[in-house]
Amino acid sequence: MIATLLIQRGTPTASPKVERFDVPFADGQTLLDGLRYIRAHIDPTLAFRFSCINANACKECMMLIDGEVDYACTTRLRDGEITLAPLPKKTLIGDLVTEIAPPDERINYATKR
Amino acid sequence: MIKFETDVLIVGAGGAGMYAAIEAAKSGASVILADRSLIGRGGATVMAMMTVAAAIGAQTPDHWERHLADTLTAGHGLCNESLSAILCEDAPARILEMDAWKVGWAREDGHIEQAHAPGHDRPRCVYVDFLNTGPAVSKTLRRHVQNASTIRRIGDLCIVDIAVEDGVACGATAIHMETGEPVILAAKAVVIATGGLTRLYRRNSASLNMAGDGYALALRAGAPLIDMEFVQFFPIGHLAPRLVGLDPIMWDPFRYKLGGILLNGQMREFEQRYAAEDGRHEGGRNDGTYVLTRDLATYAIMKEVEAGRGSPAGGAYLSFKHVPEAELRRAFGPVIDTLAKNGIDLTQRPIEVAPIAHYHMGGVKVDTQFESAVPNLFACGEAVGGANGANRLSGNAITEALVFGARAGRSAAATAAKASHRWRPSASAATLDLLRRRTPSVTANPAALIGELQGVMMDKVGPFRTQTQLDEALADIDRIERAIGTDPMASGAPFDAVLVDWLDLRNMVLVARSVTLAARARLESRGSHQREDFPGLDPRWQFNQTVELRDGRLALAADARLERSSHAAQPLADIPA
To answer: Where does the pLDDT of residue B42 fall: very low under 50, low under 70, confident under 90, or very high at 90 and above?
Structure first.
């Protein structure tokens, strides 16, 4: 089975572009598995947040999946196209990574104290 | 360049790091609590599902010395008994403090409920329903960290090296993940609270930031590590069908509450057979519902698979078919729905389980103030080695995070109160030079190499080891180290995936080699370290090994402390240079 991930990439200063990745998968594998596959086998520069990998405990892998906010670690891969974009209401850092930390846990806040 | 000054720098904001921050702040120190991920959401604590051991005597009368006795038995003669005693003696105070902070320990009949986990002589483990221990502990600590005005919390900050001046820790050099910019942290005391190393293994229950960062930081700062050969495999990690949204070690709580029957591929029970045969294991416990301690259960499952009696995915079956649905629902509530979403109905079919890298007994060698051999450098939580010896008792990990975190935080604050800032540019020069050498030429894929290293460790430095496999692993590690080179690869983009993977791999290679060297030197089987070419525990090996970096090379040694107390210690003739 092959999932086609259409991923919005880029930085805040450049206009975003969508890149297409074909990801082979087995039944039950997740979108986060697919993103990690891309990083290890196709493009090591793809940036996305995750920490706990599978447990849905850290809540870091939240992104826009087919237009809906969801977790990459609990969304299953499926045949066909899936579009991925960074969270729309958060400041973009790069690729699928946005500024999700509470304001008082960011370095700019710490420098002012 | 951004530069911070603080009394105490804490590296890692899991359970241990947050507790350390709270206690250091209470002692009057200014604190920076740094994490490469979000504060209080990465690491191991947040993933914990159930048991936290403490002799609070709520379920049944208990004393911390009983807890200590069980901890020492599980540790197979290698525990640093002073650290084990601190762990068990302080545990009730931490658990009751968390209770006062409204963590929500499960209660029955008006008292805190305590579950009976394997290896304990009585019910001793508190928890939060349903499988919510880690999130509840993390949330409670996050609240207390947030309320302390002298703690500055900084996420997305990846510590690259501890800064050392004249042999004394004086801060750290980091990169800000968002921009890739170097950051200097000058501190009077530094606490490593980065957790363990289980991400070194292909099958693991770790999060991203548990690739042994803290061990590598300590080694490069000049601090010896201890007991690095002892990696705990959790015997019944989820294997199949694919399960998401739950930690793979979740079946342990199910067994505590509901029993659960372990079956081989022929649907036959096998645990009792290994318990009966077990010559390695003095006084093997049988509590009626949960037979084997972790090291022995791992052995039993892997031996069944090896004999061709494994389940289809290569593990064992775990069956709850004897448990009525209403009982499942009562014990685990919404978790049953999450299982259903994964296509798992425990009343109909067993799931498959297999050993999974879960915890590291080894770590930074510390004294009873939790200070390493490098002055002003402390460690706490899983990053510390010694308290659990050759095998950790179920339920001691979160306890250790809370107890050692509190102790290390207090010690670091006391040290900082007497110290002045020692950081000078020379303390960060080598690390800044490393970061300046980053190159956009990505000649190898660091993420792929991480996967390769995880395979090597799983297949050749797993629960069962031989000289041949360990030699092969060392050669593989050399090859991977050559492939990453000495200059960091980097994409140059924000949240630089290539750079972070490269820096991780730099740490992982060093730590993987520490584990492998120590495993190759120990010519016996003890606890979680099982040598197929040296079966059985050998009393002459009742001493700990340390590993440290000397002139860029890892050097093993017999630890002086236990050697003195052991009658039969032998010189380590077979230890490679």
So the answer is: confident
Which residue type occupies B18?
Answer: M
Residue B526 belongs to what domain range? Answer: 439-551+560-565
Using a CB-CB cut-off of 8 Å, the residues of chain B touching A31 are: none
Helix, strand, or coil (residue B55) = coil
The owner of tokens 């963590």 is B103
Please name which of B313, B316, B336, B314 lies closest in space to residue B254, comparing C-alpha atoms: B336
* Rg, chain B, Cα only: 23
The count of CB pairs under 8 A between chains A and B is 140
Best of A49, A105, A113 to substitute, by most chain B Cβ atoms within 10 angstroms, is A105
Any domain includes B14: yes
Place of tokens 């030429």: B441
Radius of gyration of chain A (CA): 15
pLDDT band, residue B371 (cuts 50/70/90): very high
Picking from B357, B382, B411, the residue at the C-terminal end of a domain is: B357
Q: Which CATH number among 3.10.20.30, 1.10.1520.10, 1.10.3430.10, 2.60.40.10 corresponds to the domain A2-111?
A: 3.10.20.30
* pLDDT of the residue at B192: 98
- CATH number of the domain where residue B164 is located: 3.50.50.60
Give the CA distances from residue A9 to residues A23, A53, B4, B359, B439, in Å, rounded to whole numbers and listed in that order. 17, 21, 33, 36, 21
Q: CB distance A105–B39 less than 8 Å?
A: yes
Q: Return left, alpha or beta for B529; rule: phi > 0 is left, psi -120 to 50 is alpha, else beta.
A: beta
CB contact under 8 A, A113 and B496: no
- Residue B70 lies inside a defined structural domain of this protein: no
**Cβ <8 Å between A58 and B38:** yes
- Tell me, yes or no, if B294 is annotated catalytic: yes
* Tokens 């197929």, residue located: B532
Q: Are strands B351-360 and A2-9 parallel, antiparallel or unpaired?
A: unpaired
Residue B25 in any domain: the answer is yes
User: Do B26 and B147 share a structural domain?
Assistant: yes
CA quadruple B311, B312, B317, B321: dihedral sign: negative
Cα-to-chain-centroid distance, residue B483: 28
Contact B47, B70 (CB under 8 A): no
- How many Å apart are CA B323 and CA B316, to the nearest integer? 19
- Tell me phi and psi for residue B8, to 5 degrees: -125, 125
Q: B261-263 and B316-319: which strand pairing? A: antiparallel
State the pLDDT confidence band at A43, using cuts at 50, 70 and 90. very high
Residues B411 and B343 grouped into a single domain: no
Dihedral angle sign, alpha carbons of residues B303, B253, B118, B464: positive
Q: Which residues of chain A does B184 touch, with a Cβ-Cβ cutoff of 8 Å?
A: none
ipTM comes to 0.97
| Per-residue exposure over B128-150, b if at least 16 CB sit within 10 Å of its own CB, e if not | bbbbbbbbbbbbbbbebbeebeb
